[in-house]
Amino acid sequence: MSKPWQAPAPAAPRAWGGVSALSFEQRLAELGIRLPGVPRPVAAYVPGVQAGNLVFTSGQIPFVDGRLAFQGKVGADLTVEQGKEAARACALNALAVVRDLAGSLDRVKRVVKLLVFVNSAPGFTEQPQVANGASELMLEIFGDAGRHARSAVGAGELPLNAAVEVELVVELHD
Questions:
Q1: Which residues of 140-154 are buried (b: 16+ CB within 10 A; e: fewer)?
Q2: Any idea what DSSP says for residue 8?
């Protein structure tokens, strides 16, 4: 008997809400989402690495149009809603890395894991709600293949005073 959190890994393309099957790249277009270019690393690392059928992204911060769009502590400088927007921006950057390494998001078999760090004000405990900005994006784009394991962690500081940092692990089709 399967557990409610264990969804079978579907094959791409998938159908969304009765609409004919779309590729994940077509799904992006349907949602009006344009992935950014791959963000340049801010230190000595690469944006992502493919190991076998897995892609691991480095931590992505909320760069939008080449600038850091969300800075400060969530719960003091930023609201939970702004934190969610920052997590979504980070996830878009991570998907840009995946696309760059895989050649196309249509190679994604499933989203395996999200790790979300939230630059948290003292006493702030709503990291899971902030992380939903990234998680909900994965479900919007990938449907059942976007169901993933996740950690949402409060951090005292993040690079460049970013509000959120997101790492992504995806499995690719051969």
A1: bbbbebbbbebebeb
A2: -
pTM: 0.89
For 119-155, the pLDDT digits (tens) are 999 999 999 999 999 999 999 999 999 999 999 999 9
What is the per-residue pLDDT across 24-78, written as a single tens digit (0 to 9) for each? 999 999 999 999 999 989 899 999 999 999 999 999 999 999 999 999 999 999 9
Please give the CATH architecture assigned to the domain spanning 48-172.
Answer: 2-Layer Sandwich (3.30)
Q: Where are the beta strands (DSSP E) in the chain?
A: 48-51, 54-57, 63-64, 67-68, 108-119, 149-155, 164-172
With vertex at residue 58, the alpha carbon angle to CA 57 and CA 63, rounded to the nearest 5 degrees, is 100
**What burial class does residue 33 get, using C-beta atoms within 10 Å of its C-beta: 0-12 exposed, 13-18 middle, 19+ buried?**
middle
Query: Residue 56, CB half-sphere, CA atoms under 13 Å: how many?
Result: 6
Q: Strand pairing partners for 51?
A: 54
Distance (Å, whole) CA 25 – CA 171? 16
- Beta strand pairing call for 164-172 and 108-119: antiparallel
Q: What are the structural domain ranges in the chain?
A: 48-172
